[in-house]
Design goal:
Helix content is 23%, strand content 18%. The protein has 158 residues and is of the alpha/beta class.
């Protein structure tokens, strides 16, 4: 990942200019919940990953879309169509779990650390601008997570 200090001044100013438009989230948990050992966990990433053969992420409106990755998808079938030129894909190419830790989640379920793994997981393209355009799709995914009885999400922002 490129450091802000390494970007040209015009790109650094562009990136920093996005900050005021972001919503304030705070540090307090959004919801209360039971022990992790009883929770159903899903992955949601902004890494721009998808299953091999699925439509890659593209420019324009397609950037704000998401892809569904079912539980049990083999790591070799997860590919990346991340558009950002600032994103270093080296870690992903060596180990998919760096950005989409589905295998690690399965291990946590086997060890009893989490209750279960969701049936479906979701990927967005993190290079979307402005990020507020993703809200409708994020609400759609929230509904799908609720249908799958997911009560905890591991976010992997990239």
């Amino acid at each position: 990942m490129v450091r802000l200090a390494d970007l040209p001044e015009w790109e650094r100013a562009h990136m920093l200019g996005k900050i005021p438009a972001l919503p304030a989230i705070g540090l307090a948990p959004w919801v209360a919940g039971g022990p992790l050992a009883r929770r159903r966990v899903a992955l949601v990433t902004s890494a721009g990953v998808h299953r091999r053969g699925d439509r890659p992420f593209g420019h324009g409106a397609a950037r704000n879309d998401y892809r569904v990755i079912p539980r049990g998808t083999p790591p070799a079938d997860i590919v990346m169509s991340q558009l950002s030129v600032n994103f270093d894909r080296t870690g992903f190419q060596q180990d998919v779990d760096v950005v989409f830790p589905l295998q690690r989640l399965e291990e946590l379920a086997t060890e009893g650390v989490i209750g279960s793994v969701a049936t479906f997981h979701y990927a967005f393209m993190g290079a979307s601008s402005p990020v507020t355009r993703m809200e409708a799709r994020a609400r759609e995914v929230a509904g799908l997570l609720a249908q799958d009885a997911v009560d905890a999400v591991l976010l992997t922002p990239v």
